[in-house]
Amino acid sequence: MHLIDSQTNEVLLERVAIAATPWQRFCGLMLRRQFEPGFALWLDPCRSIHTMWMRVPIDVYFLDDEGTILEHRGDVAPWSIVLPAGRARSVLEIPNAAIRLAVGSRVRLSDPNQ
Asked: Which Gene3D superfamilies does the record cross-reference, listed alphabetically (predicted)?
């Protein structure tokens, strides 16, 4: 999946995986050592995260049900717990600070094969 800026239709990230089941959300990015450029993980539904057993810091974005970024927490260290942010519906985890997204901007996912 691609992460798209809803206002400009610009592709922001080219490799977004979706964690939709409880097990996928629990595992998240645990134990991974490397990430391809342009990679992120979208956890939906999700309001809080942990970074247990992770090896690298990540940027965390909380989004509402329309894809609006409510909050950004940068460089979340491994072995942390990040509590819910207001009315968050989903969480976007981005390793390696690949991009910076602005609070208040709106994003969406798009399947490049459609």
From this structure: Protein of unknown function DUF192
